[in-house]
Amino acid sequence: MINKQTIIGWATALLCPVLLLGQQHTDVPLNYLDKAFNTYDRIQKAIWSAPELGFLETQSSGLLQEHLLANGFTVETGQAGMPTAFVATYGSGTPVIALLAEFDALPGISQDTVPRRSPVEAGGSGHACGHNVFGTASVAGAVAIKTWLAETGRQGTIKVFGTPAEEGGGGKVYLVRDGFFDGVDIVLDWHPSTKNAVNVSTGTAIQMVDYTFRGKAAHAAASPDKGRSALDGVEAFNYMVNMLREHIPTASRIHYVITNGGEAPNIVPEVASVSYYIRHPNREVLQDLTKWLGEAASGAAQGTQTTVETEIVAGFYERLPNRVLAEVVQKNLESVGGIHYDARERAFAEAIAKGNGLPVTALEEVAKVQPLEEEKPSTGGGSSDVGDVSWNVPTVSFGTATFVPGSPGHSWQNVAAGGTTIGTKSLINTAKVFALTAIDLYTNPALVGEVKKEFDSRRGADFEYKSLLGDRAPALDYRK
Ligand SMILES: [Zn+2]
Which partner from 173, 264, 293, 384 sits 20 to 30 angstroms from 183, CA to CA? Predict the structure, then answer.
């Protein structure tokens, strides 16, 4: 029998998908985020204004924890020997979805929120990777997801992992290695970007290694024959590495800085050190490269009659993508849309774009969402400690347009943009994508099953996780 209610039901189903979406109560977290713009603007700017380096992010981590506590999350801190790490939890039962929150800054790149180079503090730190926005967006997303769990009474757990020292300290690797991700079903990750896109790239695995050479000090003019220069060791080593570049797989990346070259030219340096980042898209090739560099360092030490000590500072896996998750996030990114500048933001962005040598039409990209790319083999690029997470829990990563198109990574332009309302708009969009994706996963157990099936098949049955940093403790003083 067809009655009036059935007709209304059909009409709703056929004509009004918005109302159907409403039945999932997606409006609850989305409205929450729209209303909370000023709250998150304040939090991200507070972190931006007091940039803290890796493992030293006491205030930044504290601000995020405080907000989560105030919103009904339980918060535990200090995981895996890292005082600024935290895990915040709300809800119960499965699926357990985790968001990652980074909050560390970079040294020497202090910059005001203006479109020309202007440090707030000469030589000071700055959020050149946008981690002020990163951490705040994940916390905003988690609180928005909590509003949905509370409203609907659905089963499910949301967690935020406060992950210190992404810039070289590798906080996530210790959390993974020490089992803190056990029991998590899915990780949703993002990163500030110049565009709105799902990231399907696997990036590169990385090994960060410090080599310290030791020789004998002597007066460089009066008794050089009594000395053995540790700096000679470093230079001979660098020279050998620069020669081997020709003969290594093309997607490799090797870069270094001399962190200690001695004290004064009239003293033969007793100690000298060089810090290397070695990368390749495949961690097994990377391990061969690292071994080769170790042999070069020993050879350099032998030839200069010095000694060398090697310290693995950090090591990250390349990323393991998940297509099923990428498609869900793509759909939600498209539904949230891009970033729309107001007049003030537009004037700022135009000045940055011009400085980057781009026409202002390049800014149109921020209002769009990029189509989902096919996966292709990585040819180099950056590394992240999210890699280790992605080999232990199915993980998806995406970006929203926090930065002005054309700006290089780790640049003063990025510090400037991330500290403006452009950064806040991108974080609110990100949090909305998190909320919509979490709702899809909480309400569709079959989808979670598909994600896990893909994860298991990509990882292979005989996969065994072994971190690239061995059993070392976190390098808590690497930025001191
Ligand atoms: Zn970053």
Answer: 384
What pLDDT was estimated at residue 340? 97
Q: Which two tokens stand for residue 390?
A: 């992605």
> Which residues touch 115 (CB under 8 Å, ≥6 apart)?
348, 349, 351, 352, 355, 413, 416
Q: Which of 228, 198, 175 is nearest to 385 (CA)?
A: 175
DSSP-based three-state secondary structure for 275: strand
**CA–centroid distance, residue 409 to ligand 1 (Å):** 9
254-266 pLDDT, tens digit per residue, is 999 999 999 999 9
pLDDT beyond 70 at 5: no
CA atoms within 13 A on the CB side of 398: 37
Strand order in the sheet with 205-214: 253-260, 271-280, 205-214, 307-316
Of 113, 85, 101, which is closest to residue 431 (Cα–Cα)?
101
- Residue 180's Cβ-side half-sphere holds a number of Cα atoms within 13 Å equal to 29
Distance in Å, CA 370 to ligand 1 centroid: 20
How far away, in angstroms, is 270 Cα from ligand 1 center? 36
**pLDDT higher than 90, residue 21:** no
What stretch of H or E contains 440?
helix 421-443
Ligand 1 centroid distance, CA of 313 (Å):
18
In tens, the pLDDT along 447-456 reads 999 999 999 9
Q: Is the pLDDT of residue 6 over 70?
A: no
